[in-house]
Design goal:
The protein is α+β, with helices and mostly antiparallel strands. It is built from 6 helices and 4 strands. It has a 4-stranded antiparallel sheet. The termini are close together. The relative contact order is 0.15.
Length: 153
Amino acid sequence: MDEKDKTILRYLQKNGRASIQEIARATGIPITTVYNRLRLLESRGIIQGFTVLLDKHKLGKNLTAIILASVDYKELKVAHQNQEDIAQRISKLSGVTEVAIIAGQRDIMIKVELESVEQLNDFVTRQLRNLTGIGSTETLVVLKEVCQKPTKV
């Protein structure tokens, strides 16, 4: 990846709906070069897709929480599963926006966006804690999100 690729990607991050012609005009890179580089960036998996950013508050998702979970490895072993299996199951639960396997005192980090404290209670006590392999959990309610940054080029 060279500077032209980075310039194209930076422009796309600002305006994901930009046409190839618009990217070429704004960056000073010829249209055919922009087209070919975008196709190459997609085929190499650097561009994995295009998405729409939504205002979660306007969708009623007014509560964000980070949940740190410990894995019960004995229970997972009996179930012939591993940490990644349980992380995949968690990722399919309603309200989950991120799941990461982490190092430290806890094993999995889960970010949820929900409508209310009642939904959070239901998520933690009825859904998450009832999954095979979940040991203990610690729930952190986000008071204010100061910064959400996409991956920079």
